[in-house]
C-alpha cells in the first residue's frame, strides 16, 4: 500500500492511498484522483518521507513543532448553521488565489473545520434542489412545517429571500459530498 501526501492547485492538502505508484499515476491520468474539498483534479504529490515501522527503537519526538499531528485533527461532524443554500455553482479558477501566510497546520485545521461544517449540513438538512427559494418562502410564511433545508438558488433568488427577511447562507459543497453519506 502506498500512502501519498497530495495537494490540489488551490493548496488543499490531503492523503491518498494506492496499491502502487502505477495505480496512482493511472488514476490521476483518468481524472479519478480529486481534491475532497474542491473536487479539483489537478493534483500533485507533495514531498514526504516514508515512515518505517520496525517495531523497535525509541518513540519519535512528539514535542510541539516536531512533526506530531495536532490533537483533534480528523473528520467528524461538527456544528453549523442549519438552513443553507447549496452553492452548486462552485467555480474553480485556473489561477490559484494567494494563500494566507499561515503555517500548514493552521490551514489544515481550517480545511478540516470547513469539511465538518459541510458534512453536518449535509447530514442534517433535506435537499429540495432547485425549489429552494420557493420552499424557504413556504416555511418562512408558515405554509409548510419548519425544517432544515438545502438546495440551489440563483444570486437573484438569494438576494430576494434575504430582502424578505428569510435567513439563507451560501455553502460551497464539493461534488463528492453531494451523493449519499457513508
Q: Helix/strand-derived class?
A: alpha/beta
Give the biggest sheet. Answer: 3 strands, antiparallel
Supply the number of helical segments.
4
How large, in whole angstroms, is the Cα Rg?
20 Å
Strand content: 5-15%
Tell me, rounded to a whole number, the average pLDDT: 73
**Fraction of residues in helices?**
25-40%
E-strand count: 7
Number of domains: 2
The main sheet orders its strands as: 2-1-3
Shape estimate: elongated
- As residue ranges, the low-confidence spans are 62-97
**What letter string, H or E per element, gives the SSE order?**
EEHEEHEHEHE
End-to-end Cα distance: 23 Å
Descriptive report:
It is a single chain. 14% of the residues are buried. The strands form three sheets. Strands 2-1-3 form a three-stranded antiparallel beta sheet. A two-stranded parallel sheet has the order 4-7. Strands 5-6 form a two-stranded parallel ribbon. It is of the alpha/beta class. The two termini are 23 Å apart. About 20% of the residues have low confidence. Helices cover 26% and strands 14% of the residues. It folds into two domains: 47 residues, no CATH class; 100 residues, no CATH class. The longest helix is centred in the middle third of the chain and has 20 residues. The protein is elongated and about 65 Å long.
Labels describing this entry:
elongated; 182 residues; three-stranded antiparallel sheet; 14% strand; alpha/beta; single chain; 2 domains
Helix and strand layout, with pairings?
Blueprint (H helix, E strand, L loop, with lengths): L1 E7 L4 E6 L2 H9 L13 E3 L39 E3 L16 H20 L2 E2 L4 H9 L8 E2 L4 H9 L6 E3 L10
Amino acid at each position: 500500500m502506498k500512502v501519498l501526501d497530495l495537494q490540489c492547485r488551490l493548496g488543499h492538502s490531503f492523503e491518498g492511498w494506492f496499491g502502487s505508484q502505477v495505480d496512482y499515476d493511472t488514476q490521476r491520468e483518468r481524472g479519478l484522483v480529486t481534491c475532497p474539498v474542491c473536487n479539483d483534479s489537478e493534483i500533485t504529490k507533495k514531498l514526504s518521507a516514508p515512515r518505517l515501522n520496525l517495531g523497535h527503537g525509541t518513540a519519535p519526538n512528539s514535542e510541539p513543532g516536531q512533526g506530531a499531528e495536532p490533537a483533534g485533527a480528523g473528520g467528524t461532524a461538527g456544528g453549523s448553521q442549519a438552513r443553507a443554500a447549496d452553492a452548486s455553482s462552485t467555480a474553480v479558477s485556473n489561477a490559484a488565489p494567494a494563500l494566507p501566510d499561515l503555517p500548514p497546520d493552521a490551514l489544515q485545521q481550517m480545511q478540516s473545520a470547513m469539511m465538518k461544517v459541510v458534512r453536518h449540513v449535509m447530514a442534517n438538512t433535506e435537499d429540495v434542489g432547485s425549489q429552494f427559494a420557493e420552499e424557504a418562502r413556504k416555511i418562512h410564511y408558515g405554509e409548510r412545517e419548519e425544517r432544515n433545508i438545502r438546495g440551489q438558488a440563483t444570486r437573484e433568488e438569494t438576494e430576494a429571500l434575504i430582502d424578505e427577511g428569510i435567513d439563507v447562507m451560501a455553502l460551497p459543497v464539493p461534488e463528492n459530498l453531494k451523493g449519499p453519506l457513508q
